[in-house]
Amino acid sequence: MDEVEVVVAHSERATLRVGDVFLKVDTDQARIDAEVEAMALAPVPTPEVLWRKPPVLAIAAVPGAALGRLGVPSAASPAAWAAAGAAVGQLHRAPLPPRTGRAGWGLDELAAELDGECEWLVANGVLPAGLVTRSRQVAEAVFRPWTPAFTHGDLQIAHVFVEGEEVTGVIDWSEAGRGDALFDLATLTLGHEKHLGDVVAGYGSDVDLDVIRAWWSVRGLLGVRWLVEHGFDPFAPGCEVDVLRSLR
C-alpha cells in the first residue's frame, strides 16, 4: 500500500501524495475552481484532473522531475531552463482567462501593501533597515504600465516539471489569471539568477531585467512574514532574504 506523503501543509491548504495521485485540500472553493479552470485553458502540459469533491481536488502526477527548488542549485540543463522559458512564453501569449490572478496587482494597492510590510519588517527587527530601504528602492521598477497576460501566478521552479529538455507539466494553478507576465518570470528565476538568461532566451520576447529584479525584491519583502508565520524559513541559504541581500 502506498504511503501518504505530506507535500505541503499550512493553515490555508494542504497537499498530500498517495502513489501517483495528489490530493489538494483547500477550504477556499474559489481557489479550487480557479485551478481547474486555468488548467483547462492553459496551452502547456498540466496535470490530469481525476475527480473533485469539495474541499478536495485529486490530480494525477506529471512525469519528469521538478526544475529545482529554492535554496538548492538546479541540476536541470540550460536547455531545460530555456524550455521552461518557452512554455511560459506560450502561456503568456495565450488568450486571456476570465479571472484576475495573483499577478494582477493593482499598483496603488501593491504600493500600500509593500510600504506597510517594509515598516513591519523594520519595526519588529526582522530585517535591517538599510536592507529594507535598498530593497524597496529596487522594487520601485515594478510600478509601470503593463499589459495583462495569462499568468500562472505562483510559478516557482518546484511547480515546473521537465524530462530532459522538455517541459512535461506545470502544476499548482490556483493563483492563475490575468496579470503581469514579468511576475511569472521573476517567480520562476527567484534565487536562480544564473539561469535567467536561459529562461529569457527561450521566452521569445524582450524582457526588462530591472523589472524582474524588482519583482524578486517585492516577493522577498512581502513573503518574509508569511513564510515565518507558516513554518517556512526565508533566512535559509539561497532563499528570500539572501535574494534581497544580493540585489543592487
Kindly report the spatial arrangement of strands forming the biggest sheet. 1-2-3-5-4
At the fourth CATH level, what is the homologous superfamily? Aminoglycoside phosphotransferase (APH), C-terminal lobe
In one word, what is the shape?
globular
The number of helices is 8
Helix content: 40-55%
Low-confidence stretches: none
> Which CATH-level-2 architecture?
Alpha-Beta Complex
Rg from Cα: 18 Å
Largest sheet properties: 5 strands, antiparallel
Q: How many strands appear in the DSSP assignment?
A: 10
Beta content comes to 15-25%
Output mean pLDDT: 93
Highest CATH level, the class:
Alpha Beta
State the domain count: 1
Q: Structural class given helices, strands, pairing?
A: alpha+beta
End-to-end Cα distance: 51 Å
- N-to-C SSE series? EEEHEEEHHHEEEEHHHH
- What is the name of the CATH topology? Aminoglycoside 3'-phosphotransferase, Chain: A, domain 2
